[in-house]
DNA sequence: ACCGTGTATGTTTTT
DNA sequence: CATACACGGT
């Protein structure tokens, strides 16, 4: 491996440049002592315990810049790992900014997965893969497992493939190959778990494919079994940085520890109080154990908060104090007092949404001496995504612009996945899963029976499905319409494939690690006749896929065509289809920055790392938050994770934090009443102001609450032991399940100022097609074909050319 | 082969 | 309530 000899040769160079140091260090200005310590302590293991809003990203980037600026390390000798692409991108940008120039390359700054792909492409053969392996997403993974489960004659009802995929992911998170699964887990999935896991891994190898978990797992395996490979990277990565260390799982931990054992210059940044991904395999233990794992570790605590007001900070600290076994930090701030955390209870979820909508509009105008706040500066953070609906419905009705963060991701949409499957089949004909997906999409009259024939033929001849189909056709094993259609498809694939840059991949031993943006695999092709962007369009058109959606009359069809257009447009930024596919398989960018100010709605999980001047935290009811399921499944550990989630939520707020709960909520079509969250008890009373909900007789609960009072028990009394709350409870009981809906006796005003008329057929972005059955000012009542009757503001509707009925 | 109706079953999510 | 899947009819 000549590449590594050359890499090593650079070490001398960097050492000599270190001596010349003494360059200006503007990036150190304005750092507080703790941050500065974290930046300057370059050698040896460092744990940077960074509380929420304490400027950890700044410290982390300054540290990278410091490494570069002092000549301690060259850009390509620094391994910097993050969890999300967003974090990686931000770090890259900020390093560039701080450095005052564009770094030629930080090839090893990226997510765990992206870096592992790069490494695994170099060493794929060590785990029986070719370096052009494909990366399956969760959907492909599940379909593959379903096939295996079906082949084993397992009752999919009692033992759903979904469950198995969860189990296998769990094993991979713990870096367990099939042989290493502990005996204790043997009983899982009806005692067949390990067995099918093994089959699954074999099948992946046959398909020359990996799933997300494999990226880490394979690299750990390689490092553990090939000392020479490990040593080379240990030598090469002289400085290692890890962001969000509290979120690492066992596999990631092992991977890091193996690599860090070289120079032992590893700097992990994290906050044990923000560990909220335990359910997905993250081990808080990793960060708690850091000092034992890395002897001589230097621990730096970042405790000065630059984000929130003292009241908000105190409230958050009060809640998180309920957790045991923390590393412990005391956040403080120099900020002026500001607003107390506001707490308000509501009758039901609908009212909560209504109140929050009104409050947002009020804050936007500027209320009670507070400056007006932009909608962009406000966010609603919910525990579970189904809570979003109430807000969406309400905001659509009142015409409040909002954006949902972390909704269905662009690349997870059906049409995008279909289109990409076409691209995959064309770029790598061995991708059987992709072929299966598109063979009968659009409908080609190739049902289960025909597809099975293709499978059998392929298997008998030991070839991929495209070839199998070809042989089947040649043998005349298929007849009628299906045969002709399949012929067309196969011819299409051949044609598109030839229009691609070329069919063969050449592995280049690439020793240039610096501008290694495309990885070591280089394509050696003749120049293409048409660009990959045009080719993509051709594939979609000639395959009939575009036509399929053009003929589709469902309300979603126009949006899907729009998405396909976007997809083709996105291709322009890539050199070729392969590069694009790799990008999409690892990246889930969903930045649909619409025009104008919008309130953000997202889950608490999605909010980690973000901050907003105004934050609303609705749904603080026991069972919803903390979630009953978390507590049932993981007991105290689960509750503690929920509590950290509460901590994350509160600490997102800079100026105003409003917590709310509803006494009644429609869940799974049934009205249920709940007690306010136990976390509400844990809010320190002196930092909380209890607001009075409107429309509650006699001021309701909390209204007359003595502010600075006395007994802690009073804090409880304010909220749910108050007469008002009891009254609510009692009434909820009386009414039972039949909570009356808002009575609909709208005045239908035909003279209303609106460009719409009764009975007109309209289209709505979210609800699809419908007809107007009521008009009141600019508020319209629309009977949607799919979504039923909704009240919508007119500007969310567009008329259709269709004949009104 | 495809479409419709019926029933079961409902966190959190990145890569 | 609403969606996702399985089943049975055309």
UniProtKB/TrEMBL annotation:
Membrane spanning residue stretches: none
Amino acids binding ATP: 50-57
Domain UvrD-like helicase ATP-binding positions: 29-309
Gene Ontology BP, a term: recombinational repair
Catalysed reactions, semicolon-separated: Couples ATP hydrolysis with the unwinding of duplex DNA by translocating in the 3'-5' direction; ATP + H2O = ADP + phosphate + H(+)
Family the UniProt entry places it in: Belongs to the helicase family. UvrD subfamily.
Protein name (Swiss-Prot/TrEMBL): DNA 3'-5' helicase
Lineage: Bacteria, Pseudomonadati, Pseudomonadota, Alphaproteobacteria, Rhodobacterales
């Amino acid at each position: 491996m000549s590449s590594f000899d050359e890499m090593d040769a650079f070490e001398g160079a960097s050492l000599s440049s270190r001596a010349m140091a003494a360059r200006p260090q503007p990036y150190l200005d304005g750092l507080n002592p703790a941050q500065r310590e974290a930046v300057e302590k370059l050698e040896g293991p460092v744990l940077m315990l960074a509380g929420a809003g304490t400027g950890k990203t700044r410290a982390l980037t300054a540290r990278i810049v410091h490494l570069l600026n002092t000549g301690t390390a060259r850009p390509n000798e620094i391994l910097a790992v993050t969890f999300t692409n967003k974090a990686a991108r931000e770090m890259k940008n900020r390093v560039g900014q701080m450095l005052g120039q564009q770094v030629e390359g930080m090839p090893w700054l990226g997510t765990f997965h992206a870096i592992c792909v790069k490494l695994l492409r170099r060493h794929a053969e060590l785990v029986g893969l070719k370096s052009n392996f494909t990366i399956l997403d969760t959907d492909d993974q599940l379909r593959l497992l379903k096939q295996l489960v079906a082949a084993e004659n397992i009752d999919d009802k009692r033992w759903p493939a979904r469950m198995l995929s969860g189990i296998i992911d769990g094993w991979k998170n713990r870096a367990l190959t099939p042989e290493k699964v502990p005996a204790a887990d043997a009983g899982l999935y009806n005692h067949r778990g390990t067995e099918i896991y093994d089959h699954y891994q074999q099948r992946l190898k046959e398909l020359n494919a990996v799933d997300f978990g494999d990226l880490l797992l394979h690299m750990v395996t390689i490092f553990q079994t090939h000392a020479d490979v490990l040593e080379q990277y240990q030598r090469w990565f002289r400085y290692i940085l890890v962001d969000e260390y509290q979120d690492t799982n066992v596999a990631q931990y092992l991977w890091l520890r193996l690599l860090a054992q070289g120079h032992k210059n590893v700097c992990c940044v994290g906050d044990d109080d923000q560990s909220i991904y335990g359910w997905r395999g993250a081990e808080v233990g990793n960060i708690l154990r850091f000092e034992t794992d890395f002897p001589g570790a230097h621990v730096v605590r970042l405790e000065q908060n630059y984000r929130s007001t003292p009241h908000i900070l105190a409230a958050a600290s009060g809640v998180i104090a309920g957790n045991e076994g923390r590393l412990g930090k005391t956040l403080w701030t120099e900020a002026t007092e500001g607003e107390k955390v506001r707490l308000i209870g509501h009758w039901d979820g609908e009212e909560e949404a209504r109140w929050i909508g009104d409050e947002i509009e009020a804050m936007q105008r500027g209320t009670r001496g507070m400056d007006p706040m932009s909608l962009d500066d406000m966010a609603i953070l919910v525990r579970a995504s189904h809570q979003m609906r109430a807000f969406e419905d309400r905001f659509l009705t009142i015409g409040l612009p909002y954006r949902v963060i972390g909704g269905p991701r662009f690349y997870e949409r059906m049409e995008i996945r279909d289109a990409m499957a076409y691209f995959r089949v064309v770029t790598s004909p061995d991708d059987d899963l992709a072929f299966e997906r598109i063979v009968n999409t659009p409908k080609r009259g190739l049902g289960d029976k025909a597809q099975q024939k293709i499978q059998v033929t392929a298997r008998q001849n030991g070839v991929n499905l495209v070839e199998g189909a070809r042989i089947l056709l040649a043998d005349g094993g298929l007849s009628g319409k299906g045969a002709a259609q399949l012929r067309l498809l196969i011819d299409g694939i051949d044609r598109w494939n030839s229009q691609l840059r070329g069919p063969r991949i050449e592995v280049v031993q690439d020793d240039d690690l610096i501008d290694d943006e495309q990885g070591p695999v280089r394509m050696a092709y003749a120049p293409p006749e048409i660009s990959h962007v045009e080719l993509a369009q051709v594939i979609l058109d000639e395959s009939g896929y575009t036509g399929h959606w053009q003929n589709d009359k469902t309300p979603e069809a126009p949006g899907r065509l729009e998405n396909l257009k976007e997809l083709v447009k996105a291709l322009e930024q890539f050199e070729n289809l392969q590069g694009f596919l790799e990008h999409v398989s690892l990246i889930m960018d969903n930045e649909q920055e619409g025009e104008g100010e919008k309130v953000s709605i997202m889950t608490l999980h999605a909010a980690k790392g973000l901050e907003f001047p105004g934050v609303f935290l609705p749904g603080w009811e026991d069972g919803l938050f903390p979630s009953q399921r978390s507590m049932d499944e993981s007991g105290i550990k689960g509750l503690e994770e929920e509590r950290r989630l509460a901590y994350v939520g509160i600490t997102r707020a800079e100026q105003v934090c409003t917590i709310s709960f509803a006494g009644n909520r429609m869940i799974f079509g049934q009205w249920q009443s709940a007690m306010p969250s136990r976390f509400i008890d844990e809010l320190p009373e002196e930092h909380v102001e209890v607001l009075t909900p409107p429309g509650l007789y006699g001021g309701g609960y909390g209204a007359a609450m003595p502010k600075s009072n006395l007994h802690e028990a009073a804090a409880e009394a304010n909220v749910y032991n108050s007469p008002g709350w009891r009254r609510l409870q009692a009434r909820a009981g009386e009414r039972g399940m039949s909570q009356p809906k808002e009575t609909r006796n709208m005045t239908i005003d035909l003279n209303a100022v609106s460009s719409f008329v009764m009975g007109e057929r309209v289209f709505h972005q979210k609800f699809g097609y419908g007809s107007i059955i009521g008009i009141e000012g600019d508020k319209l009542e629309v009977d949607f074909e799919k979504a039923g009757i909704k009240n919508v503001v007119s500007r969310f509707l567009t008329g259709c050319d269709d004949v009104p009925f």
